[in-house]
Design goal:
By secondary structure, the chain is mainly α. The chain is built from 11 helices and no strands. α1 packs antiparallel against α11. The longest helix has 27 residues. It is globular. The two termini are about 25 Å apart.
Length: about 260
């Protein structure tokens, strides 16, 4: 019975995380962690490590799918990634020396609001309009926005994927598919860094849960990424918005249930 419950929990956790990753570049940690903690009574630190590990392959396969469909900005993605990683450390340091604030629900609430935004005000920027920005200007924007995303993620400890998607679509005016493709490309490396550090500090994970979470997240991320790259902009906006709204509501439910 325990094995059945574990498989059931990891299946739904992986499905939610994979759909969020493939459609919106959302971090798997936002979905998997609360489910493992709530239903399997897993240590929170280890749950985050497993979630980040699931995010690595899910983001990688999603990034590959978006790249194959020419919906990935590798050059500026690498520039932004460097800024994100550097300023995540800065944000973490600042968070350690200032009074703590109640920010636990920030990324969940932002997920819900971003989903509403995509449904009500879809991103209809064309790839031609996006490519009209000069390479130098785009590189500078990527550095500045990466610094902002990294600092906020380091300070709050969550919301990286959602912050990237929000800034790529609203500040940098990326076309939605390219925004998601670039986001999951960056998340592949940030999740790898986070997972490695978690297991170096916290030790080996529960291998049964680890393998099933990775497998289910990978499968659903691939399905979502393939669908997203074939969908027209309006359909993709609605699908992305729906997934984010549902995940936001479900995760808030898990947090209330866990109390």
């Amino acid at each position: 019975m325990d094995i059945f419950i574990t498989i059931l929990v990891t299946f739904f956790a992986g499905m939610g995380a994979g759909l969020g990753t493939g459609f919106a570049g959302m971090s798997a940690a936002a979905v998997i962690s609360p489910m493992l903690i709530t239903f399997l009574n897993m240590d929170p630190y280890m749950a985050v490590g497993i979630a980040l590990s699931s995010d690595v392959l899910a983001s990688a396969v999603s990034a590959y799918t978006y790249h194959k469909n020419k919906n990935l900005d590798v050059r500026n993605g690498l520039i932004m990634m460097a800024s994100v990683l550097a300023f995540t450390i800065v944000g973490s340091y600042v968070a350690s020396i200032v009074p703590s604030a109640t920010m636990g629900g920030f990324s969940v609430f932002m997920t819900f609001l971003l989903g509403i935004k995509f449904i009500i005000r879809p991103v209809m920027t064309t790839k031609e309009a996006m490519l009209g920005v000069s390479a130098k200007k785009r590189a500078i924007q990527s550095v500045i926005c990466g610094m902002l995303i990294g600092f906020i993620c380091g300070f709050i400890g969550a919301g990286g994927g959602m912050m990237m998607l929000l800034i790529l679509t609203t500040v940098l005016n990326y076309e939605l598919k390219t925004a998601v493709g670039t986001s999951v490309f960056i998340m592949t490396f940030t999740a790898l860094t986070g997972a490695a550090s978690h297991f170096m500090i916290g030790g080996t994970p529960d291998w049964f849960v680890f393998i099933f979470c990775i497998a289910f997240t990978l499968i659903w991320a691939r399905i979502a990424a393939v669908f997203a790259n074939k969908a027209n902009p309006k359909t993709l906006n609605r699908a992305t918005g729906f997934v984010l709204v549902v995940l936001g509501v479900v995760i808030m439910g898990f947090k209330l249930f866990d109390r």
